Amino acid sequence: MRKKIIAGNWKMNKTFSDAENFLITLDEELSERYLQRVEVIVCTPYPYLELAFDQADSGKFFVGAQDISSHDFGAYTGEVSAPMLHSMGADYCIIGHSERRKYHQETDEMINQKLKQLLENEIKPILCIGETITERENGITKKIIKNQLEGCCKGIELDERITIAYEPIWAIGTGKTATPQQAQEIHAFIRDWIAQNSSTRIAEDIAILYGGSMKPKNTAELLQQKDIDGGLIGGASLKIEIFVEMIDIAITSQK
Ligand code: PEP
């Protein structure tokens, strides 16, 4: 059975002391009962990673970054690479987030390079894909998802180190959540695509998260869907009480 995953994406939020307080409290709040049933990941801005690694030393949660360079080393001012993150001990890294695609013109080809970098450097990728509202209204959601999967995963042997996050762009930070049925339909489509491009076993092993205005009030219903294995959570991951509440819900909503 796939373990539930609750991953927080802080985006560009929190000062150093806010980050420290959050991580100390998270470590205090998580206990053995969480560990066996839910995997908790916190994706912090780069400057707070070291702090997060220190707090995560107890093994109660994992730490991820929010992006990496598609290159390994060299003259790329301002960038951070997969070998650097690996040398610091990063467990996970988000790639292909719609905000990166929108504000930094990231293409599936670039994301494909990043995915390769992460796998080569033993960091687990959280690959984000999702459609715009226009694409959904035009009835081409599955076509878009398929194109993104094909482009981002080109030449890559899929395995359970990869986590996929289905994040409909129209639901990110907007307060609009996909209904559990809308999300399940696309999650099942993604799992099918994995099975066709790899094997049924790998498709069953790969975690597929939902992201897009996930909050305590919609967490249980989303997580009860057959192919929804957890959440990638932006806004609601910033307040420790809310984040812990969602972790609790994830434990009680095992299928
Ligand atoms: C995200 O940034 O990945 C996200 C899902 O954000 P939010 O939960 O705020 O919609």
Notes on the protein architecture:
The model has no long low-confidence stretch (mean pLDDT 95). The protein has helices spanning 16-29, 32-37, 49-55, 82-88, 98-103, 108-120, 133-137, 141-152, 180-197, 200-205, 216-223, 240-252, and strands spanning 4-9, 38-43, 62-65, 92-95, 124-129, 163-166, 208-210, 230-233. With 255 residues, it is of the alpha/beta class. It is built from twelve helices and eight strands. The chain has one domain (4-252): Alpha-Beta Barrel (TIM Barrel), CATH 3.20.20. The termini are close together. The structure holds phosphoenolpyruvate (PEP).
Name the structural class: alpha/beta
Low-pLDDT runs of 5+ residues are none
Per CATH, which architecture? Alpha-Beta Barrel
How many E strands? 8
CATH class: Alpha Beta
Which whole number gives the mean pLDDT?
A: 95
CATH topology name, in short, is: TIM Barrel
Give a quick rundown of the structure.
The chain is of the alpha/beta class. Helices cover 45% and strands 15% of the residues.
What are the main properties of this structure?
255 residues, alpha/beta, TIM Barrel, 8-stranded parallel beta barrel, 12 helices, 8 strands, 45% helix, globular, binds phosphoenolpyruvate
Q: How are the SSEs placed, and which strands pair?
A:
Elements: E1 4-9, H1 16-29, H2 32-37, E2 38-43, H3 49-55, E3 62-65, H4 82-88, E4 92-95, H5 98-103, H6 108-120, E5 124-129, H7 133-137, H8 141-152, E6 163-166, H9 180-197, H10 200-205, E7 208-210, H11 216-223, E8 230-233, H12 240-252
Parallel strand pairs: 1-2, 1-8, 2-3, 3-4, 4-5, 5-6, 6-7, 7-8
Helix pairs in contact: 6-8, 8-9, 11-12
Phosphoenolpyruvate binds at residues 9, 11, 167, 172-173, 211-214, 232-236.
